[in-house]
What does this fold into?
Amino acid sequence: MARSLTRRHLIGTAAALGGAALAGPFGSVAQAATVASWPDTIATPPGFQPEGITIGPRAVAYTGSLIDGSVYGTELATGRGRIIREGQGPKSVGLKVDPYGRLLIAGGDSGEVRVVDRRDGRLLASFRAETGTTFVNDVVVGCGGAWFTDSFNDVLYHLPLHTPLPSTSPLRRLPLGGAWAPTPPGGEYWGANGIALTPDRRALLVVNDNVSILYRVDPRTGQATGTALDGGAVSNGDGLVLHGRTLYVVRNWAYAIDVFRLNDDGTRGTFVKRITDARFDEPTTAAVHNGRLYVVNARFDADWSDPTTSSTIVSVPL
It folds into this structure.
């Protein structure tokens, strides 16, 4: 079964697919001479269903597994990668690198927020955000810390970023109010999903998948107001990526990314274009590097009970 795959098997099979394992630290091999020669499709290991993505130092991308919570790192310049943390059960969903170089990971239905060393995969801390019906889904860094969404509960979780981390949970619960459309209870409907900063970095943008609305959220009060968009769509909105004043909305089951130009405070947006690509296969999240958007394919409709099933990270021009 996918959950019982060993690290050696995952790495060995990744190498067979062209995602060769690295023997030492990332960046220890010669990188491609120019960005134009970097691969535009990178395989993730068989049995590893990716969802989130973040890009750290030395152009290393990290993604987490929905199957067992493993974390995979890959050099964008070469496509070579390795499992940096073997999963122990709970999912790894959205993730970001924080200012201290640590990986902040949303733990899905475990209700956990995890902090992992991106170099060796050590678990530095694990905090319980919620119990019961929950899905801690995505994370953004800014506005005084890290903010996590919960798709089944109308709240955000705030994690102050310090080093060292405290031994007791520092998480603060921020209920979403104002114009926010409540999510029906029971875990059948997905509310808060992707999260990003506004261009002025003073507030948060959160897509509500249940009602297909993009909201601006005040991080002090949780009050939400709808962002006025003049076109495009945020239905099936999953990951959000802000680059300057440009917002990329990754729309999983729409197999598309809608692009908007926002005003500074994120209250209005102009539709720019829709990005589609034949390689999109239930794309969930993305990250920007060197003029390209690196997009993760979660392949929700694939047979992940088959340990040979795999997926990809694909890049498209901004």
Notes: The chain has one helix and 26 strands. Residues 1-23 have pLDDT under 50 and may be disordered. The radius of gyration is 18 Å. The first strand starts at residue 41 and ends at 43.
